[in-house]
Amino acid sequence: MIFGSEANKKLQPPKCPSNGTAARTRRLFKTQRAVKTFPASGCNTQRLNQTNPAFMTLTYRRLTPTDAVAYRALMLEAYDRHPDAFTSDVKERETLPGEWWENRLDNSNASTEAVFAAVEDNKLLGVAGLSVETRNKARHKSTLFGMYVPQAHRNRGIGYQLMCSVLEHARSRPELLVVQLTVTQGNAAAQGLYERMGFVTFGVEPLAVAVGSRFVSKVHMWKDLRE
């Protein structure tokens, strides 16, 4: 996986013939350079951090109950600004006590949820969580929840590295075989990221979420952790 100036050196435009195909070739080359590709499995975050200064001030860690106030503020922002993307409603969540948010960030061995964050200067720039099934017949499954990166901090690879953190945590639990998620139909950027991380669509749920007087559908995706 190559990023930044190193990638530009590796990928040079082909010599164009002196005819009408030259302009088309240049346009194709620009398109190729604009597309970022990531490994379908495994995350090379070290190289990503080393080659682009935009990543170097960020750290990624699992949140703890002491982060509850900051986490609550970021998620309420997410529910308020992007109602199509979340089943949870801002009015429902803002009435929950602080203890609820602290419990969600419980990082003990007994916890069935884990939330990871991108942190810069003690500020949360993005979050993503994983919830593990507790029922006997479904303990091999887990679900991604609360994936959010504010608009001001996008295009820095934060979503990618948050997914790396979530998948690394999932693989650290030997009982887990599956990670599932839903993404709002039409959210091409988010669905594209999940596909690059190895998730596969297995269905679309119509009328999944009511947003005011309208409904949005959800694309259901899954990833086999054995691959």
From TrEMBL:
GO terms for molecular function: acyltransferase activity, transferring groups other than amino-acyl groups. CDD domains: NAT_SF. SUPFAM superfamilies: Acyl-CoA N-acyltransferases (Nat). Residues 58-226 form the N-acetyltransferase domain. InterPro entries: Acyl_CoA_acyltransferase, Bact_Acetyltransf, GNAT_dom. Pfam families: Acetyltransf_1. Keywords: Acyltransferase, Transferase. Residues 1-22 are annotated as: Disordered. This is Acetyltransferase, GNAT family. It comes from Pseudomonas savastanoi pv. glycinea. The lineage of its organism: Bacteria, Pseudomonadati, Pseudomonadota, Gammaproteobacteria, Pseudomonadales.
